[in-house]
Amino acid sequence: SLLPPQIITGKARLAGVLGWPVAHSRSPVLHNYWLRQYGVDGAYVPLPADPESFVAAVLGLQAAGFRGANVTIPHKEAAYKLADVLDETAKRAGAVNTLVFREDGKILGLSTDGGGFVASLEAASLPPQPRTRALLLGAGGAARSVAAALQDKGMQVSITNRTQERAEALAEALPGADVVPWSVWEQQLGDFTLLVNTTSLGMEGGPDPLFCPSLAQATPQLVVADIVYVPRVTPLLASAQKHGLRTVGGLGMLLHQARLGFREWFGVDPQVDDATQEYVLNSF
Ligand code: ATR
């Protein structure tokens, strides 16, 4: 490749991703690609920490001079509780996926997942349409941050989830959101301009890699998005394409959510372009 070699001197800026497990994370490949592309003296490493060790791990990274870290499953709520200062999105999402160790010693918590998702729609020239309805499959942490970001763009958000109580709890935490029963969402698809799968359904190695609901009721306006990015074209997206619908895969969200953290830690706003997508994809 034409990428210059990585520079890691005694002054290197350091960041990483805290998760348990963390071996599947694509974030190290992505951030180190950008570090090389922009000639930044720095490194980004996987940081496996179990839930009992999470707080000690964060304080240890801070003590060792790290700039910050990404936080992934299962630590996003613990990171929310631990942060000294939260941005507005993190407050609404109730979760933190990016920690920044500020020079004043305070730990800043950001939620960049939802904003990254919206940025990936915008990059695909399919921005959320204000005052129209989005249907989210799932009611976990990812659903919560995506829902908050879509509401910020003026969309009316509906949640559907296998476990109805979780959908209701999420709708309650997000004023204006409502719930569609899991058993009937396919029939109600005609009411929506955006469908987002925020569950692990359709993911390779997940609970149901063949997940492919009926899209028969969709109107031609429907945009179908998936936050799953392995495989890049999930059965849901393949089916949507067969119906002539426009689709957005999950890789863009991964890249766009990473951008904000990179900017905070390494002082460069990195490009999310085709070459970046290609490089990350080829690392699978
Ligand atoms: P995350 O924080 O990444 O969103 P999570 O909180 O574990 O992860 O949420 C996973 C989502 O996938 C949930 O909405 C879950 O539905 P339940 O709340 O009913 O558990 C959904 N999910 C996982 N496996 C599923 C399956 N086999 N069928 C339907 N939904 C499933």
From TrEMBL:
<feature type="binding site">
    <location>
        <position position="227"/>
    </location>
    <ligand>
        <name>NADP(+)</name>
    </ligand>
</feature>
<feature type="binding site">
    <location>
        <begin position="161"/>
        <end position="166"/>
    </location>
    <ligand>
        <name>NADP(+)</name>
    </ligand>
</feature>
<protein>
    <recommendedName>
        <fullName>Shikimate dehydrogenase (NADP(+))</fullName>
        <ecNumber>1.1.1.25</ecNumber>
    </recommendedName>
</protein>
<dbReference type="InterPro" id="IPR006151">
    <property type="entry name" value="Shikm_DH/Glu-tRNA_Rdtase"/>
</dbReference>
<dbReference type="InterPro" id="IPR046346">
    <property type="entry name" value="Aminoacid_DH-like_N_sf"/>
</dbReference>
<dbReference type="Pfam" id="PF08501">
    <property type="entry name" value="Shikimate_dh_N"/>
</dbReference>
<feature type="binding site">
    <location>
        <begin position="25"/>
        <end position="27"/>
    </location>
    <ligand>
        <name>shikimate</name>
    </ligand>
</feature>
<keyword id="KW-0028">Amino-acid biosynthesis</keyword>
<comment type="pathway">
    <text>Metabolic intermediate biosynthesis; chorismate biosynthesis; chorismate from D-erythrose 4-phosphate and phosphoenolpyruvate: step 4/7.</text>
</comment>
<feature type="binding site">
    <location>
        <position position="113"/>
    </location>
    <ligand>
        <name>shikimate</name>
    </ligand>
</feature>
<feature type="domain" description="Quinate/shikimate 5-dehydrogenase/glutamyl-tRNA reductase">
    <location>
        <begin position="132"/>
        <end position="196"/>
    </location>
</feature>
<feature type="binding site">
    <location>
        <position position="97"/>
    </location>
    <ligand>
        <name>shikimate</name>
    </ligand>
</feature>
<dbReference type="InterPro" id="IPR011342">
    <property type="entry name" value="Shikimate_DH"/>
</dbReference>
<keyword id="KW-0521">NADP</keyword>
<dbReference type="InterPro" id="IPR013708">
    <property type="entry name" value="Shikimate_DH-bd_N"/>
</dbReference>
<feature type="binding site">
    <location>
        <position position="250"/>
    </location>
    <ligand>
        <name>NADP(+)</name>
    </ligand>
</feature>
<dbReference type="GO" id="GO:0004764">
    <property type="term" value="F:shikimate 3-dehydrogenase (NADP+) activity"/>
</dbReference>
<feature type="domain" description="SDH C-terminal">
    <location>
        <begin position="250"/>
        <end position="274"/>
    </location>
</feature>
<feature type="binding site">
    <location>
        <position position="88"/>
    </location>
    <ligand>
        <name>NADP(+)</name>
    </ligand>
</feature>
<feature type="binding site">
    <location>
        <begin position="138"/>
        <end position="142"/>
    </location>
    <ligand>
        <name>NADP(+)</name>
    </ligand>
</feature>
<feature type="binding site">
    <location>
        <position position="72"/>
    </location>
    <ligand>
        <name>shikimate</name>
    </ligand>
</feature>
<feature type="binding site">
    <location>
        <position position="229"/>
    </location>
    <ligand>
        <name>shikimate</name>
    </ligand>
</feature>
<dbReference type="InterPro" id="IPR022893">
    <property type="entry name" value="Shikimate_DH_fam"/>
</dbReference>
<feature type="domain" description="Shikimate dehydrogenase substrate binding N-terminal">
    <location>
        <begin position="17"/>
        <end position="99"/>
    </location>
</feature>
<comment type="similarity">
    <text>Belongs to the shikimate dehydrogenase family.</text>
</comment>
<dbReference type="Pfam" id="PF18317">
    <property type="entry name" value="SDH_C"/>
</dbReference>
<feature type="active site" description="Proton acceptor">
    <location>
        <position position="76"/>
    </location>
</feature>
<keyword id="KW-0560">Oxidoreductase</keyword>
<comment type="function">
    <text>Involved in the biosynthesis of the chorismate, which leads to the biosynthesis of aromatic amino acids. Catalyzes the reversible NADPH linked reduction of 3-dehydroshikimate (DHSA) to yield shikimate (SA).</text>
</comment>
<keyword id="KW-0057">Aromatic amino acid biosynthesis</keyword>
<dbReference type="InterPro" id="IPR041121">
    <property type="entry name" value="SDH_C"/>
</dbReference>
<dbReference type="Pfam" id="PF01488">
    <property type="entry name" value="Shikimate_DH"/>
</dbReference>
<comment type="subunit">
    <text>Homodimer.</text>
</comment>
<dbReference type="InterPro" id="IPR036291">
    <property type="entry name" value="NAD(P)-bd_dom_sf"/>
</dbReference>
<feature type="binding site">
    <location>
        <position position="257"/>
    </location>
    <ligand>
        <name>shikimate</name>
    </ligand>
</feature>
